[in-house]
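[step 3/7] fold_predict: job queued, chain A
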Amino acid sequence: MTAVYQVVLLTFFTSFVCVIYTEAEEPWVMLKEMGHIGYQIKSMKKNCDRDLARTTFVSLIQAPIPTTTVNGNIETSLKLVSTQEDGLSAVYEITTVTSNFFLDPDFLLTSKHESLQVELNSYAADGFNEQTDFAFNDFQLQVEKRDQAESTTYMMTYRGCSCSCDFSTMIGKNTTSGFMEIGDYDRKYTYVQRWLNEENERVCSVQVNNATLKRDAVKIMSLKFSIECRCGNSYGSWRENFISKGTYELNLI
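[step 4/7] structure written:
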């Protein structure tokens, strides 16, 4: 056996062993199988009071238990209507009262690990008072995680909506005066990628550089995946949509 052949053979077996070791040590763990998210919009109704110059939106949304809302600049109330058979989700009634002069009224639903912000369309056509078909409900998501020696990667695969995805983080370190957030770190601690897979599904991933975090004594306090869907009725025009935008957020850390 020649020396060159020995080197080639050794390289082949070394590479083969490394591939087997990598797959054995670094498997993808399925955190959520492909399917609908925790929020499903059942219906929305609109009532305009021209005398008082205000509009009331009443929304029925299925959401995880428990779910809360924040009453900020827009008057919003939340009421549990019915609990689903699985006991994990319920249908909530969200009433939003806004001035006719307010351009982008919205409300925020917050659950344990996820949230949904809905921006309402104040310019829906007069006479269009109820909506029951929402393209947002077609959105499906799959979440996977892979732990490696020096990094952790989260991969989100989604379909059913032409949406844009992103990640938000809170990164910082403990100092003598308390926790100090780091705002400008570019790709030093996290690296985001986006692509289309073979099934033409959209994929969005974030890699957390654990080795660099440890070296710099920096911590990730939170990591959130968000997806923004500008979708309302599957078939109607913008004038027949009560939703101008829906933003879904999932807590990863």
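[step 5/7] annotate
The mean pLDDT is 85.
The radius of gyration is 24 Å.
exit 0
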